[in-house]
Amino acid sequence: MAGADATNRPRMTWRYEPDENPKRKHHWDRQHAGFVTVGRIRVGKCPSTMDASSAQALLEEAIPYSPPRWDRPYPKRLYAVSDGVVYRAAPTNPGTSYHGFPEHPQTFPRAGNARNVKRQLLERAARQGCEREVRQWMNW
Q1: Which residue has better confidence, 122 or 139?
Q2: Of 26-40, 55-69, 97-111, 116-130, which gets the smallest average pLDDT?
Q3: How far apart are CA 127 and CA 109, in angstroms?
Q4: How large is the average pLDDT for residues 109-135?
Q5: Are 37 and 119 in contact (CB under 8 A)?
Q6: Which one, of 80, 69, 63, 78, lies nearest residue 111 by Cα?
Q7: How far is CA 11 from the centre of its chain?
Q8: 15 φ, ψ to 5°?
Q9: In this structure, what DSSP letter does residue 75 have?
Q10: How many alpha carbons lie under 13 Å from residue 102 in its C-beta half-sphere?
Q11: Is 23 left (phi over 0), alpha (psi -120 to 50) or beta?
């Protein structure tokens, strides 16, 4: 544990858990993140350069988000920025591990501490030199 998040919950170190699907649902052979449409769902695809250690590093600096009235001791989502791309991680083994993928702007939360998460994402993007890309993603 290290510090506390915006909801005053203790900050945890989360473990990256790779995609169980043999088709690698959130990976593709391109060197950039993107999306494909499967039915009516947009599926985020991580760049081919994203490996397990890079994913773990993103989780370790991730920003936790939980909607109002979320009563579990772990965040519903974790957010991070890498190379101008916003990533979301969802629990795979609740309270222990997460699996991440590029977040589509239309599925980013609007409630709870979402504004605080956006602010923190922009701050991190500015430090990484990709604030413009993240602002475009946020459509601000």
Answers
A1: 122
A2: 26-40
A3: 23
A4: 94
A5: no
A6: 69
A7: 16
A8: -105, 135
A9: -
A10: 25
A11: alpha
For the record, the structure tokens of 74 come out as 């772990």
pLDDT digit string, tens, across residues 64-93: 999 989 999 999 999 999 999 999 999 999
Instruction: Write down the pLDDT at residue 12.
Output: 63
- Alpha carbons 127 and 140: distance in angstroms, whole number: 19
- Which residues are 99's β-sheet partners? 90
CA distance 96 to 108: 22
138 burial class (0-12, 13-18, 19+ CB within 10 angstroms)? middle
Look at the block and give the residue holding tokens 């993603």.
137
Q: How would you classify the pairing of strands 77-82 and 97-102?
A: unpaired
**Cβ(6)–Cβ(21) below 8 Å:** no
The helix or strand, by DSSP H or E, that contains position 43, with its residue range, turns out to be strand 41-45
Distance CA 62, CA 79 (A): 5
**Structural contact between residues 6 and 117, judged by C-beta atoms closer than 8 angstroms:** yes
Question: What is the DSSP code string of 117-134?
Answer: HHHHHHHHHHHHT-HHHH
Amino acid at 8: N
